[in-house]
Amino acid sequence: MTKAIILSGGWGTRLRPLTCTIPKTLVPIVNKPVIERQILLLKSAGVKEVVLAVSVMDDVIKNYFKEGEKIGVKIHYTGEIPPKGTAGALKLAEDYLKDDNFFMLNGDVILNYDMGEMLKF
Fold first, then answer.
1. N or C: more exposed end of the chain, with fewer CB within 10 A?
2. Residues 52, 17: Cα–Cα separation, whole Å
3. Rounded to an integer, what distance in angstroms lies between the CA atom of residue 82 and that of residue 30?
4. Mind listing the pLDDT tens digit for each residue in 52-110?
5. Total of domains in the chain
6. 13: CATH
7. Is the pTM of this model over 0.85?
8. Residue 81, domain extent
9. What is the secondary structure of 49-118 as a DSSP string?
C-alpha cells in the first residue's frame, strides 16, 4: 500500500483562537503540525503518495507542503467548498486512489502507532 488520503478540510472551531489564521491540521504539536506527523508515519510505512483533501484555508496547507518535496512524498490536493464530508472527499480523490488499497486518516488526529504493523494485520 503506497497511497493515503488525509481529510484536512474542517473549520477547527473548537481550537479557536489557534485556528483563526491556520487550519487545524497545521496546529503545531511540539513544533510540528499534526498533519506533518501523520505524513511522516505514513512515509515510514512505505507510503509514497498522499492526497490532502482540503477546504478551509487550503492555500495555507498548499503553501506549507507544496508538492511534498520537503517531506519526501508526492502530495496531491483535492478541494471542496463547502466541505461535503468524508464521502465527498473520497469521491474527489477517486482518480488518485482507485488502483490500490490506501490509508485514510482524519487530519486532526494525533497518532502514535506503527502504520507498517497495521498493514501486516
1. C
2. 23
3. 31
4. 999 889 999 999 999 999 999 999 999 877 777 788 888 889 899 888 889 999 998 88
5. 1
6. 3.90.550.10
7. yes
8. 3-120
9. EEEEEE-TTHHHHHHHHTTSTTTTSEEEEEE-SS--HHHHHHHHTHHHHTTS-EEEEETT----S-HHHH
